[in-house]
Amino acid sequence: MAQDKYYITTPIYYPSGQLHIGHSYTTVAADAMARYKRLRGADVFFLTGMDEHGQKIQRTAEKAGMTPQAFVDAMAVDIKALWELLDVRYDGFIRTTDAHHVAAVQAIVQRLKDQDDIYKGSYEGLYCTPCEAFWTPSQAPEGRCPDCGGPLEPTEESCYFFRLSRYQDRLMDLFMREDPFVRPVSRAHEMINNFLKPGLDDVAVTRTSFNWGVHVPFDPDHVVYVWIDALSNYITALGYPDQLTLFDRYWPADVHLIGKEIMRFHSLIWPALLMALDLPIPKRIFGHGWLLLKEGKMSKSKGNVVDPVILVDKYGVDAIRYFLLREVPFGADGVFSNQALIERINSDLANDLGNLLSRTAAMMVKTFPQGLPEERIGDPVDEELDEEADRTLDEVEGHMEQLEFSLSLEAIWAQIGRCNKYIDVTMPWILAREEADHPRLAAVLYTLADNLRRLAVMISPFMIRTPALIRDQLGIPDKDPVSGTDYTAWESARQRGLYRANDQVRKGQALFPRIDVEKELEALETLLP
Ligand code: MSP
Q1: CB distance 263 to ligand 1 below 6 Å
Q2: pTM exceeding 0.85
Q3: Does the Cβ of 26 fall within 6 Å of ligand 1?
């Protein structure tokens, strides 16, 4: 059977300010999924990147005394550094100022014009002179600029429109298909009720009021405005329309991960554009919820954003990745708070996982410094724990297919909980006292070590560094030089009994040091909102 391919994307982010924990959320989720699929043997392409055009970027650059290009070049360095800090491993990084992308967007716009999918008209809006921005009446219900609060004037601007209305029926069919391409399904209903049922209007896709963008080839006073430029990144990054090797290999996308606020563009304009270009539609668009602060939405302009760099610096990248994907069911909105973060680190990471490893390694080193003996006396409770590990793996696989990250982690932590319970029930510290009980003790510790080995693999799409630390303390190599067993492979988590007794077990540093909640909250207050 041919190897499955898997193409996953994040939105391309506006580099108008430093990216915050909300952007990191989408990117870390996509990374976890990409890593999971790689572990399952798929041929993965994970794309992220930057949406670099538009008036806002132009103005921000001007304020910084830079050309827009110099400004976005500097931001690209920062953004790539952030993804590196978060252990995000992408395969492609698109920038909409890339020469190939610009030429591709021009070719797309030309084709749309040639086949009468775009036409010239005029856009009526409310104009804010100081901000040089257009607003629709629904965006500015009080007739004042949503950005600066200043007065707005009704104005007309010449622009090109994309005939979105032409694709109304085909889009409706797409939404009605049995396996909905928009997830969660509630978001598909929103699109049907709010946009498809009332009827789609054509959309303005060019502007003349600024010039930092892709120029329309047949009317260079116009620049392509936001969505055709931005959405087409998902195909131009694969070489469309003229270098089709990657495109043929990976398109259509298996999933576009996005925040819910851009669902309309991704689920209506994007498929219509692809229909116009006669290209296949992505298999799935997943709109996740927002990470909110107690006071509401994080926003660059309000300046109340949570900086992932500070958090990673304080607690380590694995703790932050774990928290982002564990705390809130993927799809729903959730509140980010320092307290919730610290509590999760203490309870799930330091206590549940960290203690399980340190107790296991400590008992192994103490009683069996030469490695676990061959003579072991098993018990049905050992078998039960192993069976639960089998089931846990099945559950994780089921949840991952649905991008249910928090449920995957919940399932893994339930097994960690069962391992801790197993320690309470088997009471190895009592077995250690009498030599006669050592064969039983050896079986208990073997069961724990083998379960930890399997758990280390299961957490590896989410936490990048911890699995190696777990293996290191238990004397497990990444790859066994003799048998060739790959202990990092997903399939090794499906097998029981791969742990090999050895004398390299050591009680290392705590995986996640416990945090003094009160002290830390105080310190964080000064660093974060
Ligand atoms: N450039 C457009 C996207 C074009 S995609 C073809 C854009 N950029 S953005 O910089 O504003 O990033 C928006 C995305 O960042 C959201 O869709 C979401 O993925 C992520 N998030 C930004 N803030 C967020 C939260 N507070 N919570 C969760 N995700 C958030 O829109």
Answers
A1: no
A2: yes
A3: yes
